[in-house]
């Protein structure tokens, strides 16, 4: 469907699926209707379109206990969703399993009145009263008999003859009626069994912000499942982007939200009994936020998150480096768990690993990290670290405009300077020392500079971030997608 903003591509879609309820172990045909903001699930129901529906919604049966044979009742299947009211010496309302119902009937008195009321969870054809107009009566039997409830009074278990039609006789039609309406703003989808890495086949769930769920939606083919999953995810992402635009109107240029959305955090040590948990992630200003639930109350909610800096560190042992894995050789249906994950390296080796549902989601996060790092480098412009070389205290500076500079620690005299494009390679000992290889533009020779840092990992991450931002600034497609002035082509 169309939209006023060309950046948003929300979809409208409808189709048939199966809805599986893990609690009742029942499966129903449902009709799905997807709009920009809502996913609606409709169930097939029988409605009375004309005439009187008095007592059409329930059936009463009086059972008298015999000397032999008891109540003369056998229960093959009673739908767990049915509400059964049993009157012995007093009325008892139950919603029990078949075994519990059998026990209750066996211990009841000499006369039992059973009233069965048909609910939506019962297949619609079972709810039609006997003799409903417009139906093939040879193929539609009594709901009482279809449910497996047989009385000895009718020994041959045949269906009674339909009553003669009357002017006030009710007429029925099958219709799709709204059963669940899930708002898609801040919603999430999952193809995995809750808390595990086990992938469901051709199935997924949709969870609203308030944790209301669709239960499990099943599809006949993997392609159909992926198509619906992609369409729903697209609308969720579009609503998120619209919400980001609204929030950013009230934020400073240094505090803009770049991207946010759900991801499933996988435990570092699965043997410790930890399970996967959904977290809400946000890239805002110079920080990466991890929430238990979306910050929907106010902007101050961002303080209630685990927060890591992208480039600029309050203490130089706290930073963020994103590593994204994308199995391009796999189709959307064949991608394994590892191919749709990214990890966040924090400080000295601590990491968080997040799993996404679709390759398109991972691509969005990849571009968002690039944009967030670009913004932060543009904001701070340069970063300096104290270091040493051959016993001398030096100052090493990474500058977005001029490149790499090394100067004396006290006099600030510049000892050497290279552009980003002159860096041809590097190696380090994994502890404190790094060798930087630069190409001299005049002699065309490789010049090696060996430096020692107190926190080498932070320095290497900073260098990587600045180079990535420099490469992005030279990409016309990237720059066209950004609203930032300046293109430093000469550095």
From TrEMBL:
Query: Any idea where the Syntrophin C-terminal PH domain is?
Result: 380-474
Region feature Disordered, mapped onto this chain: 151-170
One annotated GO molecular function: structural molecule activity
* Protein's cellular compartments: Cytoplasm
Q: Which Pfam families match?
A: Syntrophin_4th (PF23012)
> Could you name the domain of life of the organism this protein comes from?
Eukaryota
Q: What is its main location?
A: cytoplasm
According to its record, what are the GO cellular component terms? cytoplasm; dystrophin-associated glycoprotein complex
The molecule here is called: Syntrophin, gamma 2
Tell me the lineage of the source organism: Eukaryota, Metazoa, Chordata, Craniata, Vertebrata
